[in-house]
Write a structure and sequence with these properties.
Helix content is about 40%, strand content about 15%. The protein is built from ten helices and 13 strands. Strand 5, helix 5 (about 145-160) and strand 6 form a beta-alpha-beta unit. Helix 2 (about 65-70) runs parallel beside helix 4 (about 90-115), helix 6 crosses helix 10 (about 295-310) and helix 8 (about 250-260) packs across helix 10. The radius of gyration is 19 Å and the shape is globular.
Amino acid sequence: MVDALWKNQRVLVTGGAGFIGSHLTRCLVDASAEVIVLDDLSTGSRSQVPSAAELIVGSVECRSTVEQAAADCTAIIHLAARVSVPQAEQDPDGCRRVNVEGTANAVAAASAGQARFVLASTCAVYGDPDSIPTSEATPVKPLSVYGQSKASAESIVLDAIEQDRLQASCLRLFNVVGRGQNAASAYAAVVPRFAECLCAGRPPTIEGDGLQTRDFVPVGFVVDCLLRAASSPVAPVVNVGTGHETSLLELLERMQSIAGTALQPTFAAGRTGDIRRSVADVETLHRDCGACEPNRLGQALRDVLDQHAPG
């Protein structure tokens, strides 16, 4: 098992108090790793960090703080980022400082300490992709400030790999779902928003016609992929998805079935610039990471519904 490889290893998880980071941190602690979490707690929560992990409250924008957190680490898994698309549009400089300069600081620390490095990137770098399913060879054409910042972060990592300064990989995460995701989040929040409505007996709202598709990825599978990429060399860029395309109407139907409800959705105007179809080509993931998603989406949806259930 991948978990067995982490016993007694010192690992830095930036953004480890957030949604994905907290799942990853708990997994590493359970695997007997020595875990350092660096998080500014702007969106993460102190309560999400296991007591066995060391929490450093600080920003990846500060190079000395990153260097302190990365000292003697054998691996750095870099999740710290501003992920809200609207927030990035309102504050592009702040987004750049965290997502681009923060990545440069983390890469410098990994390079200096010869630590393996994994960047949590995003399918947003593809923009409205030229091909479906979307492979890693698809041109990078981000439509948002957030996507542009992640593409720039990837470039920093890939340059360091090319210069033989870093053993690293950029994982392009598709729409991650699971327990602990904030319904008020601007990032892939349709699942917790649907869950909140269904559990409260309110009709959920769908923006657009509901036929837009996404590749919904269980957070547990994402954690497994991050650990695989951090434990041994893989391709410089890897999609992390299921390879399954699900429309919002299909998603709602599946969640209604699990919840035992039959609420008719209301429809609102679609969001400007919303991508119509998104699904990952996962050939590289399966070949290089040895990862295979065994259809855990149903359990992830149950977890989110349980989280929002009354009482």
